[in-house]
Amino acid sequence: MRNVPRPRGRTGAERPVGTPLPLWLPAGCALALILLPVLGLFARVDPARLPALLTSPTALSALWLSLRTAALATGVSALLGGPLAVVLARSRVPGTRLLRGAVLLPLVLPPVVGGLALLYLLGRTGPVGAVLEQRFGLTLPYTTTAVVLAQTFVAMPFLVVSLEGALRAAGTEHERMAATLGAGPWLTFRRVTLPMVLPALVSGLVLTFARALGEFGATITFAGSLRGTTRTLPLAVYTEAQADVDAAVAMSLLLVAMALLVIVVARPRAVG
Amino acid sequence: MTRARARSFPLAVLLTAVLVASGCGAGARTEGTTLTVLAAASLTESFREMGERFERAHPDVEVRFNFQGSALLAERVRQGAGGDVFASADRAMMNKVVRAGAVAERPRTFATNRLSVVVPPDNPAGVRALSDLAAEDVSVVVCAPQVPCGAATERVETVSGVRLTPVSEENDVKDVLHKVEAGEADAGLVYVTDAEAAGKKVRTVDFPASERVTNEYPIATLEAAEHPDTAEAFVEFVRGDRGRRILREYGFGTP
Asked: What pLDDT score does A268 carry?
């Protein structure tokens, strides 16, 4: 951006740089690809049945479960992923770069693969799962805890990445200044670092929540699908689509509505 | 980014988008006949062999399969996703397609199937009968009632009087099988043919009520078929002597 030659006028605002024409066609295609399917979803809605479908016990139980698990996954991400972001941004230990890459793994992996990985680690026959079951009588698959774990696995990187980026962009200038004024590391963290990256933290949390809400592949693979326990909204959409498409579409609208809400809340900070 | 650009982004883009949308994607057909068969997940192994044999008899034809839950396939057909032949795991899903006017002729039953209990090879919960599955500490995985194997499972519950409290309701019979194979469930209800296909990876526990709940598998050529004659030939092949022999090999009943 800085290297683009400025127009003769004093500021760019007086003579705005136009959008090159050749970009419009692919841009239009891209927009169509994003918007048309969602519009198609609305076109498929049966208005007469919609209120009943939206308030059906199946939809409500899935919605409630989704909100609960996504909120928990966001909480776990904040508690664990937040500190991880700080460590990755500030630590000078060799190998940090590698770790930074590893954190991206769930973002790139297909969620089903994540689900399988969780299953083979924490399932009844997995190395960790078997110990949990024999020592503590804990079985993770098919539980709501498994849903939260799957969602955290897939969604936490959003928080780590956005927070880590903000921390590195902010630099350590202010923190060092606080240190010279006699503040300890913990006080500096609370009074200087945290307020500095608060916007990134909030938008990261909202994105994490949104990703957790939409989680499907890892959940169905690791946690299974049972109404009220593990069948979150996306899973319910998939199951209902087998029998009653109108019900599936109605539940999809719930997800679209929540996605829009998230965009409205988070967008200015995340994108702007 | 800059305010000027944001303002110069008119709604007309959306209209342009709608106009060009049809030009954005296009498909091309290759030479030779490609037959697309949509078949229930439980037909995976038997229809693969069916396809190989059919291709040997018709060298210019390539058979391509789409194996998924019947309910999912039925919905795809109803939405006009195309395909030449549809083979469903029960009549309910085929009827859906028939009501939508998407089949070219009356569906014909070509196979029957029934359910069986499968357990991991070491049978960790010591399951010996269907009634054992009702115990609280036995984790059971079944198909969701929305799909054919789940509908059959509900009928088994009615006929046998055994009430199941599954830990998970899967969308496709293969998912149930995989959970049991992986040892992540003590027992699952799958078709006898799936149990057979899994070989030594699972153990089968037969139960009397299973005989009284059979699924009838109908097959039909689709209205949207690109190769109606080849599609009809495939249906005849499946229903003919060679097809029936293959189906029986894989554990299906034949009418």
From this structure: 54
pLDDT < 70 regions, chain A: 1-14, 266-272
The answer to whether B191 is annotated as binding is yes
Pairing of β B140-143 and β B187-191: parallel
| Domains of chain B with CATH codes | 33-112+216-249 (3.40.190.10), 115-212 (3.40.190.120)
Contacting residues for B61 by C-beta, under 8 A, at least 6 apart: B32, B33, B34, B35, B54, B55, B230
Amino acid at B253: G
Taking the C-alpha atoms of residue A253 and residue A41, their distance in angstroms, rounded to an integer, is: 8
| pLDDT for position B31 | 58
- Closest Cα partner for B153 from B163, B221, A20? B163
pLDDT (0 to 100) of residue A5: 53
Six token digits for residue A121: 């680690």
Residue B249 binned pLDDT confidence (cut-offs 50, 70, 90):
very high
DSSP character at residue B147:
S
Q: How far apart are CA B88 and CA A264, in angstroms?
A: 44
Residues of B with CB below 8 A from A227's CB? 169
Q: What is the pLDDT of residue B25?
A: 39
Q: Please tell me if residue A123 touches chain B, with a CB cutoff of 8 Å.
A: yes
Closest to A81 (Cα-Cα) out of A149, A158, A146, A150: A158
Residue B30: the pLDDT is: 44
- Confidence check on the interface: ipTM exceeds 0.85, yes or no: no
Contact B210, B114 (CB under 8 A): yes
Comparing CB atoms, the residue among B75, B168, B182 nearest residue A230 is B168
What is the pLDDT of chain B when averaged over all its residues? 86
Q: What is the DSSP letter of B103?
A: B
Q: Sort out which chain B residues have CB atoms less than 8 A from A240's CB and list them.
A: 146
- The type of residue at A224 is G
Burial of A23 (0-12, 13-18, 19+ CB in 10 A): exposed
- Alpha carbon B56 to chain centroid, angstroms: 24
- At which residue do the structure tokens 């291709």 appear? B55
**pLDDT classification of B17: cutoffs 50, 70, 90:** very low
Q: Please tell me the distance in Å from B240's CA to the nearest CA on chain A.
A: 31
- Burial environment of residue B242 by CB neighbours within 10 A (0 to 12, 13 to 18, 19 or more): middle
Report which residue type is found at B150.
G
**Cα-based torsion angle of the residue sequence A33, A37, A42, A46 in order, rounded to the nearest 10 degrees:** 160
Q: What is the token pair recorded at A240? A: 């209902």
- Per residue in B64-97, pLDDT (tens digit) is 999 988 988 998 898 888 899 999 999 999 999 9
Q: Quick check: B77 and B38 in contact, CB under 8 A?
A: yes
Taking an 8 Å cut-off on Cβ atoms, the answer to whether A239 and B171 are in contact is yes
pLDDT above 50 (res B24): no
**What is the reported pTM?**
0.80
